[in-house]
TrEMBL record:
It is found in: Secreted. This is Bifunctional inhibitor/plant lipid transfer protein/seed storage helical domain-containing protein. Its main location: secreted. One of its GO terms (cellular component) is extracellular region. The keyword Secreted applies. Transmembrane segments: none annotated. Residues 1-32 form the signal peptide. Pfam families: Tryp_alpha_amyl. Keywords: Secreted, Signal. The lineage of its organism: Eukaryota, Viridiplantae, Streptophyta, Embryophyta, Tracheophyta. Belongs to the A9/FIL1 family. Residues 44-92 form the Bifunctional inhibitor/plant lipid transfer protein/seed storage helical domain. InterPro entries: Bifun_inhib/LTP/seed_sf, Bifunc_inhib/LTP/seed_store.
Length: 95
């Protein structure tokens, strides 16, 4: 049971890492898909870790300035990375 909890924790940490990478990347692809402002979400990085404080004004303004589809696509890309790296898919408990 402890091994399973450790594996879930590792998966959650990997998911967070991939999410941070996806949000921090400043690529021409994001701009080409009409996703300006996606790179501004790096101001939210500190608020994506367990136990973090509520997001500050800079993070909320950055999030407000990005189309929801762009954020969702970035999350989908981040979620697909483990498979592309021949790693097990991420499963995250949202409870």
């Amino acid at each position: 049971m402890a091994a399973l909890k450790s594996l879930v924790s590792l998966g959650s940490q990997a998911a967070l890492l991939f999410l941070l990478i996806a949000l921090a990347m400043q690529t021409k692809t994001a701009e080409a898909q009409n996703c300006p402002g996606l790179n501004n979400l790096t101001s939210c990085q500190a608020f994506l870790v367990p136990g973090a404080a509520n997001p500050n004004t800079a993070c909320c303004n950055a999030l407000r300035g990005v189309q929801h589809d762009c954020v969702c696509n970035a999350l989908r890309i981040a979620q697909s990375l483990p498979t592309k790296c021949n790693l097990p898919p991420l499963t995250c408990n949202t409870n």
